[in-house]
Amino acid sequence: MKLIADNLRITKPKIQAALLALDPEPLQDLVRQCVAKQAFAIDVNTGPLGKSPEEGMRFFIEAVQMVTDLPLLIDTSNSDAMRAGLEAAKNPVMINGFSLEPEKLEKILPLAKEFDADIVGFLLYPDSRVPKNEAERFEIALELIGQAEAAGVAKERVIIDPVVPPLAWDDGIVQARAVLKVIQMLPDLLGFDVQTIGGISNLTTGAGDKDKKNLMEQSYLAMLAAAGLSFALMDILNPDLVKAARASGILTKEEIFSWAMVPRG
Hints:
This protein folds into two domains: 1-70, no CATH class; 92-253, Alpha-Beta Barrel (TIM Barrel). It has ten helices and eight strands. It is of the alpha/beta class. It has an eight-stranded parallel beta barrel, surrounded by five helices.
């Protein structure tokens, strides 16, 4: 399970201010911290960017890749911004992402073929509704893969995001268990070693108690690792969460155990 830093978000006031001033230093300082914590990749979450999306995305990508050569997930729903980011990127990139929403099928999915990039596929209905159970998620996964192949994108380039639910939903716990089953069963269903990704912070959306939030995220991370999750999109600057993720990863390995593998408490 590889750890992807989700810390670079446009929703943070410092990042918003940096964009307005076109000041790369706040972005770069944050990215340097993520690199120091041994992130596998950086999620560049710009949102749709509003006015001048191309300029804004180029600013983000150029600022980030000046301080790291790690892979970048370009995280935006704006197809113009996505194209600008892909054109500006020198680092390896992943497109984050597409769904069955018609506009994303039309404008974002084709970019994966054009730029020879992996692309995240969200298990959501065309109207962005979250499916209710495993069977619905499997149907959507099959449709996503079919749409990708029809667009000339190899099925192996699609990274499935089963959409981690907030526990605060009425059926949040049931949905969280369904996500685990989907991750476990997707390779058999799709007939190849499909990659998967999950946003850990989604689980505790709306949580006010930091300690309780940490506990639930750590526990679910272990369950995701056991289910075979490929990429955990998470707060790489949360030391407890990172230790839990790395320890969980050790327990999924088929090799001789050594205490030297275990991160210090």
